[in-house]
Amino acid sequence: MFKPKRIIFEKGSLDYQISKEIFEKFKDKPNVEIINLSTNRLKENIPGDDLFSQYREGKKTLVVGTKKSLKFQSCKPSAHYQLPLVSGCMGQCEYCYLNTQLGDKPYVKVHVNIDDILNQAEKYINERLPEITIFEGAATSDPIPVEVFTHSLEKAILFFGKNENSRFRFVTKYNDVDSLLKLEHNGHTEIRFSINTSYVIDEYENFTASRDKRIEASIKAAKAGYPMGYLIAPVFIYPNWKEEYHRLLLKLKEKLPSDLDYPVTFEVISHRYTTIAKKRILEVFPESSLPMNDEERKFKFGQFGYGKYIYGEESLGEIKQFFKREIEELFINKEIKYII
Ligand code: SF4
């Protein structure tokens, strides 16, 4: 659960019930600063003169506001649209794409006009009938740590549960899923858990849930009948990587019940970075030990027009072969979506 150091209420946001509840919950907490904005000058209220301090202060800031533009971003290839419930994340994963995407706005912002957002989702669904429309709830955030304040995922899951022509999916590195377990999801929401070896989590995924807590939460979600999957990303090659990823997969196999309603999905993504991301990461985490030596990587142009440094052909081949063989051997009711 997110424990903010300061909460900023944007102008007009306190008209919404969710905001009032957040305000009531924190108004008497001595170590939480409450700021009611009467202007749009949000950034001035978050300390920090450079990216390093803006990042650290921003990550401890909860902004409560509304989603003004209801034109949803597309979310190819995993979904048709992003569902803009939250942006930003309390986690401080060193490789996170949000470091580049959100830049000097790393704060966590919750959108409290959830009814407007879901009404808009319904319009998009109706435009695409009779096709099924898929919405992604974690395109620019990890929505789980703020769920306790907003119940937005709960509302979205119930909404999509009743709608036959849409699906909802999100991914998390956290474990606070208990409030979602009893909801009538009708199999329309897929919860994916981003997992990794304890070495990678301890080294690079600061302020996230431990490996075992994520696994425990994933088992709860699977037992609650949700379509459930694992995103193993980013995969790093380091001493003993095969043994440690093997132990991780073995642990999943041991814990997963054998009578799941849906096949468990696996998405495996090897570590990669862009030049812009590397520069940004080293500004925010100057001591980072992330392997980002360009000479040891292969440069590849991606589908979105910019290049990435990926593992060389031989290493990538080894990663693909390893995960394919392990997943095939260990799991029965499963689907490997991709290994890249
Ligand atoms: Fe980024 Fe996910 Fe880590 Fe949050 S938990 S910092 S969204 S990688």
UniProtKB/TrEMBL annotation:
Gene3D superfamilies associated with the record: 3.40.50.12110, 3.80.30.30
Enzyme Commission number: 4.1.99.14
Show the InterPro entries listed in the entry. Answer: rSAM, SPL, SPL_Clostridia, SPL_firmicutes
One of the entry's Gene Ontology molecular-function terms is: lyase activity
In terms of Pfam families, this protein maps to:
SPL (PF20903)
Protein name, UniProt field: Spore photoproduct lyase
Alphabetic keyword roster: Lyase
